[in-house]
Amino acid sequence: MFVDTGRSAALCALLGFLVTFAVIRTITRRIHARREDPERGVLRDVHVGGVHVHHQVWGILLLLVTGMLTFRYDPQAPWAELLAALFGAGAALTLDEFALWLYLDDVYWSAEGRRSLDAILVGGAVGAALLLQSSPIGAGPEDSGTAWAFVATVVLHFSTAGVCVLKGKLPTGIIGVVVPVVAAVGAIRLAKPSSIWARRRYGEAKLARAGRRFGPAYQRRVNRFLDLLGGKPDRP
């Protein structure tokens, strides 16, 4: 099905992304557990010349190599699918340490390190949306008489995605660029109380509602999910 529609490369990229993330998180959690119990397991961090080489390095190299090969040779099947799978693997290795290059510090097992899990979730969702051929703008109108309606739709779409970002829902806004309905729902719902939107536009009552909506109970649910996905952080 995906081969006939020209989406086989997108499928391979998504599979490479998901499988690599699952494998690398399993490995890093084993290594982390070994630090607490040195007798446990044989997996270790990679060191070259006494320097700890994070797995984002290998991810960046994979992204560069696969990108250059694709741009230079425009490969056909099965090489296009192979390069796509390697690209997905490189993206997973890189985004799994997104927090490290965001904070310029080794925060992998801290609360700040959960930004990496946010990046992984966004990357996986965008990959799935692209696989389903979701487009941020769709096909342009053939009839020039509907051109203004088309432009208005595109502007509305990107505006709702922008509102999501202003409301403190960055992952929703990014996914919403590819899936319009996600952006629309995120733009309608309450903003996070710490967001620019809430601070500038909400009165005391609505700000209190937002605080209850995104309060401790909400954060506990998010933390439980992130603990399951990527492991518990060492420090709050």
Separate helix tally: 11
Mean pLDDT: 86
Portion in beta strands: under 5%
Biggest sheet overview? 2 strands, antiparallel
N-end to C-end Cα span: 46 Å
Unreliable stretches covering 5 or more consecutive residues: none
Tell how many strands the DSSP assignment holds: 2
> How much helix is in the residues?
55-70%
SSE-based structural type: mainly alpha
**What would you report as the Rg, rounded to the nearest angstrom?**
21 Å
What is the spatial order of strands in the main beta sheet? 1-2
Order of helices and strands: HEEHHHHHHHHHH
Q: What overall form do the CA principal axes indicate?
A: flat
Please describe the structure with a list of short key phrases separated by commas or semicolons.
236 residues; mainly alpha; two-stranded antiparallel sheet
Describe the structure.
This protein is an all-alpha fold. The chain has a domain at 1-133. The protein contains 11 helices and 2 strands. It has helices at residues 8-36, 55-73, 79-95, 98-103, 114-131, 147-166, 170-178, 180-188, 196-201, 204-213, 216-230; strands spanning 47-48, 51-52. A hairpin with a 2-residue loop joins strand 1 (47-48) and strand 2 (51-52). The model has no long low-confidence stretch (mean pLDDT 86).
Give the structure's gist in a few sentences.
This is Integral membrane protein. The chain is mostly helical and 236 residues long.
Question: Which SSEs are present, and which pair or pack?
Answer:
Elements: H1 8-36, E1 47-48, E2 51-52, H2 55-73, H3 79-95, H4 98-103, H5 114-131, H6 147-166, H7 170-178, H8 180-188, H9 196-201, H10 204-213, H11 216-230
Helix pairs in contact: 1-3, 1-5, 2-3, 5-7, 6-7, 6-8, 7-8
Protein name: Integral membrane protein
Keywords: Membrane, Transmembrane, Transmembrane helix
Organism: Prauserella flavalba
